[in-house]
Amino acid sequence: MGDNTIGRYQKGNPITTPIETDDPSVDLLHCIVNVSLDKHGRLRYILRDANSNTGTFVDNTEIPPRERRIITDGTLFTIGATSIILHACGEGDA
Question: Contact 26/19 with Cβ under 8 angstroms?
Answer without folding.
Answer: yes
